[in-house]
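Reopening this ticket.

The earlier resolution said the output was attached, but the attachment link was broken on my side. Pasting everything inline this time so it's all in one place.
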Amino acid sequence: MIKSYSDLEVYRRAYKIAMEIFHLCVKFPKEEKYSLTSQIVRSSRSVSANISEGWAKREYENVFKQHLIHSLGSVTETQTWLNFALDCNYIKDEEFIVLYKETDEISMMLTKLHQNWKTR
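Inline output:
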C-alpha cells in the first residue's frame, strides 16, 4: 500500500539517480559549475521533487498528473545533459550507459503511473 510519495518506486529511483549524478558532477571541471553541472543537477533533482510535490496534491488528479508530466520533462532534460557530459568527455561511456538506461526506466515508470493513476 502506498502511504507516501517515498513508497513509490519511481520516486526512490529518481532520488537515487539524482544523488548519483550529483556525486559524479564533483569531477566535472570547475568552469562547468554554473553551466552543465548546475543544469544536470537541477534537472535530475526536479524529477523526484515534482513527484513529491504532486503527491501532496494527489486528490486533484489532473494536478498530480501534471506534476508527473513535469517530472517526465525533467528526465528527458537530464538525458540531454548526460549527452553533453559524454560528448565533453566528463563521463565515461559505461557511466553514461548505466545512467541513461536508468533514466529511460524512470521515464517509462512515470508514463505508466500517469496513465494508471486514479484518485479514489
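Reporter confirms the inline version is readable. The longest helix spans residues 61-87. The CA atoms of residues 79 and 100 lie 6 Å apart.
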